[in-house]
Amino acid sequence: xxxxxxxxxxxxxxxxxxxxxxxxxxxxxxxxxxxxxxxxxxxxxxxxxxxxxxxxxxxxxxxxxxxxxxxxxxxxxxxxxxxxxxxxxxxxxxxxxxxxxxxxxxxxxxxxxxxxxxxxxxxxxxxxxxxxxxxxxxxxxxxxxxxxxxxxxxxxxxxxxxxxxxxxxxxxxxxxxxxxxxxxxxxxxxxxxxxxxxxxxxxxxxxxxxxxxxxxxxxxxxxxxxxxxxxxxxxxxxxxxxxxxxxxxxxxxxxxxxxxxxxxxxxxxxxxxxxxxxxxxxxxxxxxxxxxx
Length: 293
Known about the structure:
alpha/beta; CATH 2.40.50.140; Rossmann fold; Ribonucleotide Reductase Protein R1, domain 1; six-stranded mixed beta sheet; five-stranded mixed β-barrel; 9 helices; 26% strand; globular; zinc; cytoplasm; NA-bd_OB-fold; GTP binding
């Protein structure tokens, strides 16, 4: 039985890539009965019926998967955030980072619209870049008509399945067009009233680019902590993980416990105060979440 990878899902069909061709497939009814659904990025077994039609029979085990957008087996995510229009938002960035960490997806932070910065704001952004790099994240700031941008970003795509994510209206489609000009994606227009862009992408698709696979994904503009338990949250803050063994209590939540190494690190400036405030906000969101049945 042939094996391939789902590269696109559209209108109830799954397009399976195998040996340089796409096979249009349907999912077996058994998946619906089990409450399962094939996802873009899945490796699957399929049977062929006719010239270019098939049925997906087996979904291979996934490395990871997201619900919104529905995509599986992701290696890394390029998080596209603008520094202006809309303004750079550390709490939203940290929300993205935490959820990606929980799925073991490596984040790469890409900041856009740097040409809109004044001198004071540019210094602030550079300080944020330094702080996120100290945590261990890769951060790039794109400049308008930057001839070196391709040289910086394209080597990161080779051999990886990459998701492009971020706020609406920050230039994701523009960035994709920079990486792969032949896409000619429709770029969104910022809505002044809402402060966010109009959705311009309608389906999930993996595109071969720079020796890897790249996805542009609709609805990837916010994250909730639906599946995360409070005990797992601190493991999604790398700078907490680095010193958590120094806490007095094993399994320290870094909230009310005495002799907490994380709180000491905040007082000394080793951990940034805004990161800890975000941690507490996310922690409370998880506590207040309605129970799942």
